[in-house]
Amino acid sequence: xxxxxxxxxxxxxxxxxxxxxxxxxxxxxxxxxxxxxxxxxxxxxxxxxxxxxxxxxxxxxxxxxxxxxxxxxxxxxxxxxxxxxxxxxxxxxxxxxxxxxxxxxxxxxxxxxxxxxxxxxxxxxxxxxxxxxxxxxxxxxxxxxxxxxxxxxxxxxxxxxxxxxxxxxxxxxxxxxxxxxxxxxxxxxxxxxxxxxxxxxxxxxxxxxxxxxxxxxxxxxxxxxxxxxxxxxxxxxxxxxxxxxxxxxxxxxxxxxxxxxxxxxxxxxxxxxxxxxxxxxxxxxxxxxxxxxxxxxxxxxxxxxxxxxxxxxxxxxxxxxxxxxxxxxxxxxxxxxxxxxxxxxxxxx
Length: 349
Ligand SMILES: Cc1cc2nc3c(=O)[nH]c(=O)nc-3n(C[C@H](O)[C@H](O)[C@H](O)COP(=O)(O)OP(=O)(O)OC[C@H]3O[C@@H](n4cnc5c(N)ncnc54)[C@H](O)[C@@H]3O)c2cc1C
Known about the structure:
Layout: H1 10-32, H2 43-55, H3 74-84, H4 112-125, H5 142-145, E1 158-163, E2 171-176, H6 193-229, E3 231-232, E4 235-236, H7 241-269, H8 275-300, H9 311-321, H10 328-340
Antiparallel strand pairs: 1-2, 3-4
The structure holds flavin-adenine dinucleotide.
């Protein structure tokens, strides 16, 4: 049970409770019936889940209400995301699309026509969207590496191919060959795209952190249930100090990650610069999630790595989460730069 000293309003508890109920009551039964080698919830099952979620008002949590979304603040979104992440295919998107796909926030800075075309359609039609920042020139420092200027899916010369990776949800490579983009597709001002993406990076990092907290919390719950009923050498696993310490360490780490995430989201909502706080939350959250899921798998023994349980899915996805949305080293660099100032780039005070 999360620390409630932040005085979360009743409506937020109700909303996160409704999301937790939806995950347990609707998403988990669908996932349990899928074959062991499934990598996602298939469209035939996802459609009805989306219809139910939309009917229940659990739709595109982060999109502004005026466009048909939930209008959640960053703080509200991390609280809800933690609950939405407690299922097998919750990477990269908690809910696996059942709660819709909130459009990338850069689109809200678009013209009225662009918002109608991309934002409203994404929310109404449950289109999935993505943000392509990383380029062959390097993803860790996009401010230097970005060469592409704008595109629209289906534009002649634009090619989209799947790149299989460790986690269930594979990534996509988009390439361009003499691709002409009309000027009306430009969002904001020319040359200012990376600044627009900064807000997306903060919100995205917070969601990665919240997702890791939710998954680690669920992995802990599964391992605790197991330790309470599994006997080896005539005694419950729960009596073994090695198991107790792993469980205690998981609790400490999850609570710490949640506090960092909530603090960063709260700072962002107050209109303060939350970039470093978001880096701290994403760095600690994803590294913590990987450590905790690994430790909980160990408590479950062979069952821990079985595909019928979600832990091995989360383990693979969390390994990827330590690289996407900024590798851990980049977040350490950003935090160090904030502390060291100009000296971090070699300039003397
Ligand atoms: C499954 C998946 C999904 C993805 N989805 C998206 C997406 O939707 N949109 C998108 O834009 N991108 C996406 N990416 C790309 C991802 O953001 C990049 O892989 C990531 O930012 C790292 O960039 P890179 O792979 O070019 O590694 P590089 O920039 O080449 O860095 C390689 C490694 O070097 C180390 N390193 C780099 N710089 C430093 C430094 N200054 N100090 C110390 N160590 C350093 C880090 O350990 C880093 O992992 C995805 C990647 C994967 C695997």
